[in-house]
Design a protein that fits this description.
By secondary structure, this protein is α/β, with parallel strands linked by helices. It folds into two domains: 3-256 and 455-479, Aldehyde Dehydrogenase, Chain A, domain 1 (3-Layer(aba) Sandwich), CATH 3.40.605.10; 261-445, Aldehyde Dehydrogenase, Chain A, domain 2 (3-Layer(aba) Sandwich), CATH 3.40.309. It has helices at residues 3-6, 46-62, 67-83, 85-96, 100-121, 161-174, 189-200, 215-223, 237-247, 270-281, 302-314, 334-349, 378-381, 397-405, 420-429, 463-469, and strands at 10-12, 14-16, 19-21, 26-30, 37-42, 127-129, 140-148, 151-155, 178-182, 208-210, 228-234, 252-255, 261-264, 294-298, 353-356, 360-361, 364-365, 368-371, 388-394, 412-416, 434-437, 457-458, 471-479. α6 (161-174) runs parallel beside α7 (189-200), α6 (161-174) packs across α16 (463-469) and α10 (270-281) crosses α11. The relative contact order is 0.14.
C-alpha cells in the first residue's frame, strides 16, 4: 500500500448542541508510525467549554428520552460501529499505533460495550425499603429510585481512545445523563468518530458535546465549572489525584495506573503460562494500565519458565502496525520510547540483567525482559507503560503475595496455579481490584466491574457498575 497516497488529512471541529463548531487555532494529529499528518482538530477556548456545559445542562433539564429510547439509540450505535469497523480499525492503527490485531480486539469490545450499555438502560431500578417494619412508620411505604446525576465531564486517555470513550459515554447516556467529552490531544479522532456514530444512531442534539485541546487548559476549565455533577477520568495517578483535589465534593470515577504483578507458581502449567504471558505482555506496546509488568516466578520453576517465556517473546514480530503479522508496534511517541529506554538502561546500570530487547528505533521499543531487578528500580516500583517486563523469583506463595502487594498501585493481578486453595488465597490476599486466575492481569471482560484500589483509582467501570456511579439513589417515602 502506498501510504502517502492513501492518507488525506481530515479536519475535526468541536461538537456542541448538534453542531460542528470551528475555532481560531488547530492542533495537528500524526500517524504514530510514519509521522505523517493524518488530521487536525479544533483547539477549544474557554468560552467553548462554557458553552458546551451550558448546552449539556439545558439538554439534561429538558430531555424527554425514555430508558427504552436510550436503549434503541445505543443498540443502533453498536450496529453502525460494526458496519464501520474497517474504517475505525485503520484509524486506530494510524492514530494510536495499534497493530491490526489490537485494533480488531478494541473494535470487538467497543461494539460489546455499546450493546451492554443499551441493555442496562432498561434495567435501572431501585429497591423497596421496609419502613413499615419499624415502630412509628407502620403506615409508611418507602422505596429508593436511581436518578441521573446531570452533566458528566468525561476525560479519556490515548491508549484505548475509542473503547474508553465508549465506556464513559455509553453508560452515561444509558443512565440519562448528558456528557462533555474531552479526549486525549494525541488521539482525539476516535472520540469524534464515536460522536458521529451516536449522532447517526439518533441521539438528539445536546446530549453529548466534545471539546478538544490541551489537558492543562481544557481539563482545568471543565474542573472549574460547578455545573458539572461528576467527573469520570482514565489516566495517570498524578492527574487523577489532581482531579480529585479540584473536584471538591463532586463525585469522581478514576481509573488510574498499575504495575501489574503476574505470579507463576510451582504447580502451574509452564508451557501454557509462558505462552499466554508472552503473547499478552506487549499488546498495545505495553501501554495499558493492566499490562503485564512484574512476573513473579517460584524459584523451583524459574529457569524453566524463563527459558520458555523468552523463547516466546523472541518470536514476536515488531514493526509497522499496518502489517497484519505485526505483534508490537510503536509507542505513542518517540519521547515515551526514549523514557522507557532510559529506565531500562538505568536498571541495567543498577545491576539488572537484560535478557532480551532493550533496543529502540524511533517510537518503537522492542519487547524487553529484565531479570535480577530490585523493588526500588523504576521498572518495578513505577508504572513503566511500555513493552518492558521484569522477572523476579520467590520462595513461597506468601512471599509472592508480599512482593505483589509491595506497590502503591492495585488495579489487577494475575496468578497461574492448578491449586484451588492457592487461587482462593490469592483472591483474598492480593490487594487489587481484580485477581485473574490462570490468565494474565490484562484480562478484562467489559461486562465485569473494573477498577482498582490504592493509587489505581476510585469507582468501577463496566456499564452496569459505571451507571451506579453515574446515578444517585433517591429515597421516596409515602405516608398513607
Amino acid at each position: 500500500m502506498d501510504r502517502k497516497n492513501s492518507i488525506l488529512p481530515k479536519e475535526y471541529r468541536l461538537y456542541m448542541n448538534g453542531e460542528w463548531v470551528d475555532t481560531k487555532e488547530r492542533i495537528p494529529v500524526y500517524h504514530k508510525y510514519s509521522g505523517e499528518l493524518i488530521a487536525s482538530i479544533a483547539k477549544a477556548e474557554k468560552h467553548h467549554v462554557e458553552d458546551a456545559v451550558t448546552f449539556a445542562q439545558k439538554t439534561f433539564r429538558e430531555s424527554t428520552l425514555t430508558p427504552y429510547e436510550r436503549y434503541e439509540i445505543l443498540l443502533r450505535a453498536a450496529v453502525i460501529a460494526e458496519r464501520k469497523r474497517e474504517d475505525l480499525e485503520i484509524s486506530l492503527i494510524r492514530e494510536v499505533g495499534k497493530t491490526v490485531k489490537d485494533a480488531k480486539v478494541e473494535l470487538d469490545r467497543v461494539i460489546q460495550t455499546l450493546r451492554l450499555s443499551a441493555e442496562e438502560a432498561k434495567r435501572i431500578s431501585g429497591e423497596v425499603i421496609p419502613l413499615h417494619a419499624t415502630p412509628g412508620s407502620e403506615n409508611r411505604i418507602g422505596f429508593a429510585i436511581r436518578v441521573p446525576k446531570g452533566v458528566l465531564g468525561a476525560i479519556t486517555p490515548f491508549n484505548y481512545p475509542l473503547l474508553l470513550s465508549t465506556h464513559k459515554v455509553g453508560p452515561a447516556i444509558a443512565a440519562g445523563n448528558t456528557v462533555v467529552l474531552k479526549p486525549a490531544t494525541s488521539t482525539p479522532i476516535a472520540s469524534f468518530q464515536l460522536v458521529e456514530i451516536i449522532e447517526e444512531a439518533g441521539l438528539p442534539k445536546g446530549h453529548i458535546q466534545i471539546v478538544t485541546g490541551h489537558g492543562g487548559e481544557v481539563g482545568d476549565w471543565l474542573l472549574d465549572d460547578p455545573r458539572i455533577a461528576m467527573y469520570t477520568f482514565t489516566g495517570s495517578a498524578e492527574v487523577g489525584t489532581y482531579i480529585k483535589q479540584r473536584s471538591g465534593l463532586r463525585p469522581v470515577a478514576l481509573e488510574l495506573g498499575n504495575n501489574s504483578p503476574n505470579i507463576v507458581h510451582d504447580d502451574a502449567d509452564l508451557d501454557r503460562a509462558a505462552q499466554i504471558i508472552a503473547s499478552r505482555s506487549f499488546h498495545n506496546a505495553g501501554q495499558a494500565c493492566i499490562a503485564v509488568q512484574r512476573i513473579l516466578v517460584h524459584k523451583a520453576v524459574l529457569e524453566a519458565f524463563t527459558e520458555k517465556y523468552v523463547t516466546c517473546v523472541k518470536q514476536l514480530v515488531v514493526g509497522d502496525p499496518e502489517n497484519p503479522v505485526t505483534d508490537v508496534g510503536p509507542m505513542i511517541s518517540e519521547k515515551e520510547a526514549v523514557r522507557a529506554e532510559q529506565w531500562v538502561r538505568e536498571a541495567v546500570q543498577q545491576g539488572a540483567t537484560l535478557v532480551c530487547g532493550g533496543k529502540r528505533q524511533g517510537a518503537i521499543m522492542y519487547p524487553t525482559v529484565l531479570t535480577h531487578t530490585t523493588a526500588e528500580m523504576k521498572v518495578n516500583c513505577l508504572e513503566v507503560f511500555a513493552p518492558v517486563v521484569t522477572i523476579t523469583p520467590y520462595a513461597s506463595i506468601e512471599e509472592a503475595f508480599s512482593i505483589a502487594n509491595e506497590s502503591t498501585y492495585g488495579l489487577q493481578a494475575g496468578i497461574f496455579t492448578n491449586d484451588l486453595t492457592t487461587a482462593m488465597k490469592a483472591a483474598r490476599t492480593l490487594e487489587y481490584g481484580g485477581v485473574i486466575v490462570n490468565d494474565v492481569s490484562t484480562y478484562r471482560n467489559d461486562i465485569m466491574p473494573y477498577g482498582g484500589v490504592k493509587n489505581s483509582g476510585l469507582g468501577k467501570e463496566g456499564p452496569r457498575y459505571a451507571m451506579e456511579e453515574m446515578t444517585d439513589l433517591r429515597m421516596v417515602v409515602l405516608n398513607l
